Amino acid sequence: MRVFLVSDLHADCSHNMRWCENLEREADSALIVAGDVATDLGAIGRCLKVLLDRYDVVFYTPGAPRRNHELWRSSGFADSFAKLDAVLALCADLGVRTAPELLPCGVFIVPLLSWPHEDFDREPPLALPPGETLRRPVEPACRCISDYGACVWPGFENGSRALAARFDAMQDLAPLLELRRRAYPTVPLISFSHFLPLQSLLPEKRFLFSPNLAKAVGSDFLEARVRALDADIHCFGHTHFSWDSTENGTRYVQHCLGTPDEAKRREAASCGRDEFRGMSTGKTKRTRHRHAW
Prior knowledge:
The chain has a 6-stranded mixed sheet with strand order 4-5-6-7-9-8, with no helix packed on it. Strands 1-2-3 form a 3-stranded parallel sheet, with helices on one face. The protein has one domain (about 1-125, about 135-270): Purple Acid Phosphatase, chain A, domain 2. Helix content is about 30%, strand content about 15%. α2 (about 40-55) runs parallel beside α3. The longest helix is centred in the N-terminal third of the chain and has 15 residues, at about 80-95. The chain has helices at about 15-20, 40-55, 80-95, 140-145, 145-150, 160-170, 175-185, 220-230, 260-270; strands spanning about 1-5, 30-35, 55-60, 100, 110, 190, 235, 245, 250-255. β2, α2 and β3 form a beta-alpha-beta unit. The chain is of the alpha/beta class.
């Protein structure tokens, strides 16, 4: 069995939905979807059904992109917690996996829920040379992404550590850790989230159009989860930067689709494309399986 990865599908966009529909059927396969399928519950369901037709097993965790978001409150939902419950219930109805599972091929896949908090950012603010001024003001974190205005969390403030802790508390991995320790100590483990567990997985502020993006992308609680799992690979999304690096024995990979314009630019620049190559055309060109286990 091969394990594939994609994130940030933006299937609300008809171009991206067609890209999903044009994927070929992959025999003996599992797909990890690291967040951001769509905003509308119907679109999320349609996209996941398409992916289930192409892959034997689909794993998924909700995300929080800058343009559409599974957890943005929409008509029919009292708040974003209610929307999250509806998304997870939809996945259960469809057979999309949102909980840890040991695949028949001998690989643990572990979805992780998370939410970003502003003090995840520990890089100092940009410092200007003496006498220099900024050509444009640095946007605050709440302006870097749309989640602050589009999500409603009763009793919590967006960007707060308390909200990030609330998300982390939704999952109990103790039974999995004990099972792995006792019965499967050498079995590989792939964890995935939408958000970043390490700030080093984001370019430095001097390279970012929005330097405060670092305040809206990651979670310390998520880092603790990845470390506790001792993951061989951790997959993530959200920032729309293709990524493949190794830190402290864990390989970190982001393999996003993004918006049509982003996908078109990324196709020529990204190395190691796998079956998801051809994002701008919807065709699946065969290349080496850099992101397949």
